[in-house]
Amino acid sequence: MDREKYERGLSARKKVLGADYVEKVLANADDFSAPFQEMVTEHCWGTCWGDDTLSFQQRSMLNLGMLAALGRMHEFELHFKGAITNGVSREELRAILLQIAVYCGIPAGVECFRIARKVFSEIDAA
After folding, report:
1. CB 85 within 8 A of CB 75
2. pLDDT by residue (tens digit) across 9-60?
3. Within a 13 Å sphere around the CA of 24, how many CA atoms are in the beta-carbon half?
4. What is the pLDDT of residue 79?
């Protein structure tokens, strides 16, 4: 493992997803899944998110489109929250979800808007 890349990834992962969430995921890793969590942190977060060619906002926008297209709605919700953390506005999020509905299909759009409503309700209640 590239320790520098891992640490850079850990920092990015915590910034986008929240330190509490990341620490919980890592603490829940067992002998079987710990190598996967290390790989995710080093490669997804250290290599991709750690590269400053694209901003965190741009990466969040890309992830939302890709996750919706793949139908990975659990990850979509997580990254929707991350997009908000990264400063993507509600207007930008609505535009992204409309584009998802056009290119990925109305059922994907329905699910994405459902998730958005849930996340915004949680934020507005806090």
Report:
1. no
2. 999 999 999 999 999 999 999 999 999 999 999 999 999 999 999 999 999 9
3. 5
4. 97
* Tokens 């929707």, located at residue: 80
Which residue in 105, 80, 74 sits closest to 94, CA to CA?
80
Rounded to a whole number of angstroms, the distance between the first and last alpha carbons of the chain is 39
116 residue type, one letter: A
> Which helix (H) or strand (E) is 108 found in, with range?
helix 106-125
**CB hemisphere CA count around 114 (13 angstroms):** 9
- The domains of the chain are located at 1-53, 55-126
Q: Which residue has the tokens 């079987």?
A: 32
Task: Please report the DSSP string for 28-52 in residue order.
Answer: H--TTTHHHHHHIIIIIIIIITT-T
CATH superfamily of this structure's domain 55-126 = AhpD-like (1.20.1290.10)
Distances (CA, A) of 16 to 1, 83, 105, 111: 22, 8, 27, 22
Q: How many alpha carbons fall within 13 Å on the CB side of residue 13?
A: 24
